[in-house]
Write a structure and sequence with these properties.
Number of helices: 16
Order of helices and strands: HHHHEHHHEEEHHHHHHHHH
Radius of gyration: 23 Å
CATH class of one domain: Mainly Alpha
Helix content: 40-55%
Strand content: 5-15%
Oligomer: single chain
Shape: globular
Strand order of the largest sheet: 1-3-4-2
């Protein structure tokens, strides 16, 4: 087991055998022997390996293994296979922590994720996704108002939301199914910490689209475009778009798009798209606005204050719940949270020692 962990940690860190050897102070052949189980690293070498790969030493001894099935990436095409494999391993490392925590409970504290009932089995056009999204919002009792905290909402319906430290701007998010050794399955959505809140929210909604639209799209309908349409409709439903912008417009003001961005957590560019998709503006007006938007350099960075990022809260809450119920020890809680014991004790007492 430990040999596989060393290899996974190296690949997740994006290191070659030689590069890891240099960081640890051994030859690349020694690292190779570690990974093939022909040589067992000492405790001091394990500490060096952990530091070099950016993991805690406990990672090498974790017994809960997970497979990541059917991963769907939201990425640029230049985010290649090697980068994808490294990213999947980062996600797996975090999912394994979640699985280990959940396994400490006598019964799972999470709801099992299931798509809402009554959804259409076949979607033949992108326009049909508007009603599809409305059905989901209604089933989950979200109404047609802004979703204040999307991560909380998705965690409440049984999704594992993972924040990934990924410096490569070509990656935005991933949706997959995690399967444990005993056959349990969990839907997982991973999102990069690199992006501002509106980009994160769109990515989360896009990846939710992958989970809900899988197997429902007519032949020839592009899944990525369908998930983009779903993300926009889920964050800003058609009825809200028309109510707030009006049935038909000849122009839109930047300030109103900026205000709507901060109300609904959808970017200004996303609101331009929604205005066109919902028939508020025609294609010619849309292209004119997009050209002006791009000329101001706003496609790379939108003006004004960025939307604040959201962060998963459920995992930490469940750690303290398990601790209170004595399902896990203090040291296990600190390990799962990835913090030193002194910091754990301070945070546990809300900063009062």
């Amino acid at each position: 087991m430990i040999e596989n962990r060393i290899r996974q940690a190296r690949l997740a860190a994006g290191l070659t055998l030689a590069a890891l050897g240099d960081k640890v102070g051994v030859s690349h052949t020694t690292i190779q022997k570690y990974e093939k189980g022909r040589l067992t690293p000492s405790s001091s070498q394990l500490l060096k390996l952990a530091r070099a790969c950016g993991v805690r030493t406990e990672y090498f001894f974790r017994t809960h293994t997970v497979d990541l099935l059917r991963p769907e990436f939201r990425k640029l095409s230049s985010f290649g296979k090697t980068a994808q494999e490294a990213l999947k391993l980062k996600v797996l490392e975090l999912v394994e922590k979640h699985v280990e925590l959940l396994s400490a409970f006598p019964e799972s504290p999470l709801l099992a994720f299931t798509p809402p009932s009554g959804l259409p089995n076949l979607i033949s056009s992108l326009d049909e996704i508007e009603n599809f999204s409305d059905l989901i919002r209604n089933q989950w009792q979200l109404g047609m108002n802004p979703i204040p905290h999307l991560i909380d909402t998705l965690e409440a319906i049984g999704l594992l939301i993972i924040e990934v430290h990924e410096d490569n701007p070509k990656f935005s998010g991933l949706a997959a199914t995690a399967r444990t050794e005993d056959g349990r399955e969990f839907p997982v959505v991973a999102v990069s910490k690199l992006w501002p809140g509106d980009r994160q929210r769109f990515t989360l909604a896009h990846e939710l689209g992958h989970l809900l639209l899988k197997g429902r799209l007519a032949e020839g309908l592009d899944e990525e475009k369908a998930c983009d349409r779903f993300a926009g409709a889920f964050l800003a439903p058609q009825v809200a778009v028309i109510y707030l912008l009006g049935q038909q417009r000849q122009a839109l003001e930047w300030k109103e798009l900026y205000a709507l961005k901060h109300e609904f957590g959808l970017s200004m560019a996303g609101w331009l798209q929604r205005a066109k998709q919902c028939g508020v503006i025609n294609g010619e007006t849309y292209l004119s606005l997009v050209k002006r938007f791009s000329a101001r350099g706003w496609r790379k960075k939108e003006p004004g204050d960025p939307l604040q990022q959201e962060h998963p809260q459920l995992f930490a809450q469940l750690v303290y719940r398990a601790l209170a119920e004595q399902y896990i020890s203090d040291s296990k809680a600190a390990e799962l949270l990835g913090i030193p014991m002194m910091r754990f004790h301070k945070e546990r007492q809300l900063g009062v020692i």
